[in-house]
Write a structure and sequence with these properties.
With 244 residues, the chain is α/β, with parallel strands linked by helices. It is built from nine helices and five strands.
Length: 244
């Protein structure tokens, strides 16, 4: 079956970055923002990681947002929810400085244009660990618009995370497509290439490769943005042309 729908990861894929540099900058700014409200920086970082782990493990059927705040308030208490407006203010303002920790490539927009130019559909399959406001900001940092995507996953609209295969099942169900007509493009061998297990085709973008388990990547089509453009050119078709 030909590819009619392409799912793109964001961090390290459409938005070039070193994940560790990004995280350090992000956490540092958030700790500074919340210090006046009595949040110990180390305990704050521990709570964010606890919330992240809760989202990755989430199988409750509830949104990841709920899983995160349940874990966060288990450390800081329910009164932490009174500071939700401060977190939102942070993402509107200080979080924008984290853009300086990211790279940029015009080829991100080029691959989106390539898919759409061939009549394909596009969704953003970024690990839904962030609120929508932060995800929309990172989309714009990549030189794109949230409107470029039929769907983009956030902690509000998702009930599981990568590398859980159910994350990809949720996306295809939302889009109303078969896994076999989808291509997942990402830079993380574990989190993105797992899409292959539900029948999706995959492409491993190696510009900001993450391969913590040092797997043999020859099992996947892979390469840089130019290789991806060539791959898309030869494999994406509009749904009517693909007889789907």
């Amino acid at each position: 079956m030909s590819i009619t729908t392409v799912l793109f990861d964001l961090d390290g894929t459409l938005l070039p970055m070193d994940q560790d540099v990004f995280t350090k900058h992000y956490f540092g700014l958030l700790a500074k923002k919340l210090a006046p409200y009595g949040y110990d920086p180390k305990l704050l970082v521990d709570a964010i990681w606890a919330g992240t782990a809760a989202m990755v493990k989430n199988q409750s059927g509830q949104p990841n947002e709920k899983a995160f705040w349940n874990a966060f308030t288990a450390i800081f208490g329910e009164q932490a929810l009174e500071h939700l407006p401060v977190f939102e203010e942070f993402y509107h303002n200080e979080f924008q400085e984290v853009k300086a920790s990211c790279g940029f490539t015009p080829l991100a927009a080029a691959v989106i244009a390539k898919v759409k130019g061939k009549g394909g559909r596009v969704a953003l399959a970024t690990n839904p660990l962030f609120p929508s406001i932060a995800t929309e900001s990172r989309i714009r940092w990549a030189g794109l618009s949230p409107d470029d995507f039929e769907l983009y996953t956030t902690y509000e609209n998702s009930v599981c995370c990568k590398p859980n295969p159910d994350y990809y099942h949720c996306i295809v169900n939302e889009l109303g497509v078969a896994p076999e007509e989808c291509l997942m493009v990402g830079n993380d061998v574990k989190e993105d290439m797992i899409a292959k297990t539900i029948g999706m085709k995959v492409f491993l973008l190696t510009d900001c490769l993450i391969n913590k388990e040092e797997k043999d990547i020859s099992a996947y089509p892979h390469g840089d943005f130019n290789d991806l453009l060539a791959f898309l050119d030869g494999n994406v078709q509009a749904c009517e042309e693909a007889d789907c």
